[in-house]
Write a structure and sequence with these properties.
23% strand, eight-stranded mixed beta sheet, 295 residues, rod-shaped, Arc Repressor Mutant, subunit A, 9 helices, D-Maltodextrin-Binding Protein, domain 2
Length: 295
């Protein structure tokens, strides 16, 4: 079915006059009449009764008219929707994010993105930085919010900030009341950490940081969510080293102390494919850059 011919039909049906319809369509009358005859042949029916004095719809034409209006409105809606998608006004942004970003970064970024582009939808996936890199390469996500990745081929990493690390300890622990500590203070402590199988890059970063201070990083318990890790800490099973944004999570009997070492920080990165980002991703990069410009 030729949509343009449906538009010609609707114009003639509205005007019930070929001359006025042609003027409305900014075309001459003979081509319009020819297009209507072609539509009638295509549908194998007569749509208009024509006389020297007036034009009227046949029963078939009257039946077609509301359906033609509906089809054209739907087609126009698709055109508008695709135009919005091309310009980043609509669509679905698929985001992978490390668990620690869920406490402060993700709510802040998505709130601002939704304010600026309310018609955009989201698919949110909690995954490690290493998993994000794999998902980006496979085309499963559009944007990653991560920490580090050992093998980042074909992935662009944009630094957002260096986030300070804190030590989390139970209230009864010897570090449970101090406001500050050093990495060396953690020597000999039982550590609860993020699962090294899921995030080998983060494990390597922390192991290298502590190793430089003569401290072994070998968690006795490993989990894939900071809520679980901090639950064990609050229960007195050990201490944990966590990004500062996680401290918004404060179960009873949990204390956070700042790590005073200059090396005690981890990067927060935006991960994208190396090709030029599509509008939805470019907008996200702009939102994060503005929100964390001073970080």
């Amino acid at each position: 079915m030729n949509l343009q011919r449906l538009r010609y039909f609707v114009a003639v049906a509205d005007e019930l006059h070929f001359g006025r319809a042609a003027e409305r369509l900014s075309m001459s009358q003979p081509p319009l009449s020819q297009q209507i005859r072609m539509l009638e042949r295509e549908l194998d029916t007569t749509l208009f009764d024509r006389s020297t004095r007036r034009v009227t719809l046949t029963d078939a034409g009257a039946f077609l008219y509301p359906e033609a209006v509906r089809v054209l409105a739907a087609a126009d809606g698709v055109d508008r929707l695709m135009d919005q998608h091309r310009h980043g006004q609509a669509g679905t942004l698929r985001v992978g994010f490390v668990d620690s970003a869920a406490y402060e970064v993700m709510p802040r970024v998505l709130s601002e993105y939704r304010r600026r582009w309310p018609r955009v939808g989201y698919e949110l996936h909690s995954m490690s930085s290493d998993e994000q890199v794999q998902a980006l390469r496979a085309g499963q996500i559009d944007l990653g919010i991560g920490r580090a990745a050992a093998d980042a081929r074909n992935v662009e990493a944009t630094l957002v900030m260096h986030e300070p690390l804190l030590v989390a300890a139970g209230a009864a622990h010897r570090l449970g009341a101090t406001p500050r500590a050093s990495l060396r203070d953690l020597s000999g402590e039982a550590i609860i950490g993020f699962d090294r199988r899921v995030s080998p890059s983060l494990h390597a970063v922390l192991a290298g940081m502590l190793g430089a201070e003569g401290v072994t990083y070998d968690p006795i318990i490993e989990a894939t969510e900071y809520a679980t890790i901090l639950g064990f800490v609050a229960a007195g099973e050990g201490i944990a080293i966590v990004p500062a944004s996680v401290q918004t999570f404060r179960p009873p009997e949990l204390h956070y102390a700042a790590l005073e070492d200059r090396s005690a920080s981890v990067p927060l990165l935006l991960l994208t494919r190396t090709a030029e980002p599509p509008p939805l991703v470019a907008q996200a990069l702009d939102v994060v850059a503005k929100l964390y410009a001073a970080s």
